[in-house]
Amino acid sequence: MNREDYPTVDESTLQGVVRTNLDSPEPTKAQLDRKARSIALIRQMGLPYMDNLPVVEDERQTTPRLPEQVAKRCIAVALCAVKGETQGNDEALISNLVKMYGAQSFFSPEEAVFIDNPSPEPQQLIDFCWRYECVHVFLWALGHIDELKPPNIICDVPHDVGIIRDTGPDDFVEKARSRDQAEILDMADLYYRLHWAAIELRLQGKKSEIIDEGIVRERHRALNWLIGYMGQKWDDVSTDT
Q1: Which of 238, 3, 4, 218 is nearest to 127 (CA)?
Q2: What phi, psi does 15 have (nearest 5°)?
Q3: 80 backbone dihedrals φ, ψ, rounded to 5°
Q4: How far apart are CA 99 and CA 150, in angstroms?
Q5: Do residues 77 and 131 lie in contact, with contact meaning Cβ atoms separated by under 8 Å?
Q6: Which residues of the chain have pLDDT under 50?
Q7: E strand or H helix at 93, and its extent?
């Protein structure tokens, strides 16, 4: 699907800022196959898609995150989400969890400010609570979850948090193992296109019961971090479509 009413911008002006077709001028078979599989799934879902959306980076263009990095990021995001869920009303709980998991050094600058803030703004609490969807992706990437929930169903928070709790503070990081990078790239490609579909529906004033833009945005964020999109640090990870 292509829309003629989209504003056009020379891709050369966007290169290095967002993903463009110039980043992979000669896509590999793996990249093209990945794109084709994603579009086929999206078409089966009855969602809009755009043929000209760029391919996601090839394995040779990405550096896999170390399992330890993913596990620590998962813990940091989970603790921030817990604080968001509790509305910042249980600082003792958060402090104890941070100490239990030795997570003081796991937080990004933005997360560290939030964790230490006794009175976050209401929107901050909401935003960080949404990051449970990122935790869901990280648990999948670490092999703790076989499949992600559909893009219209929020993650099972008690189940996901229970995985971290039951694995234990030491083993969760020290025994972490990651999925193959090709699988992660497959999912990153799919959610890149699902996010485009969700935004397209919103711009057209339409809704679909089989996709939720908030869920997709957060999972897209986590997947972009996992593949090192644009070399961005966690606080700066973008979800360009």
Answers
A1: 218
A2: -60, 130
A3: -65, -40
A4: 34
A5: yes
A6: 1-4
A7: helix 91-100
